[in-house]
Predict the 3D structure of the following.
Amino acid sequence: MYLNKAMVFGNLTRDPEVRALPNGGNVCSFGVATNRVYKKADGSKQEEVEFHNVVTFGKLADLCGQYLKKGSSAYIEGRLKTRNWDDKDSGKKQYKTEIIAETVQFGPRGASTGGGAPRSNAPVTDAEAPQKSPKDDAIDYPTEDINPDDIPF
């Protein structure tokens, strides 16, 4: 058995581009950037960025084109596919590896991210949040010790 699975979570590097296929369906393509932070041997932090090309088809393409925008975050699951073609200008063979998405989960919608109509559970800024009293944040812990024999499992 063989496995071809790609999973990435990152931010869109450009607005999705939706095009119509000759068969009447839609295709949507966009780029996603992911990063990795690690420490080098000398102890300094290093950040490495990878750019991924993502393609969706059908209803998923319509949804991605409607709700995703440059800068918004998304989790993508799919398979890797490498296309090749002959470049007419240089005569050389060109290659492009893409993630053919089967699942796309849209990230949280904030003021800086793209996307669609506001939801009722959208993030609230500090100015809009209702003010709590300090007593609301306190947790009432029992004053006596807990006996392990009293736990039913």
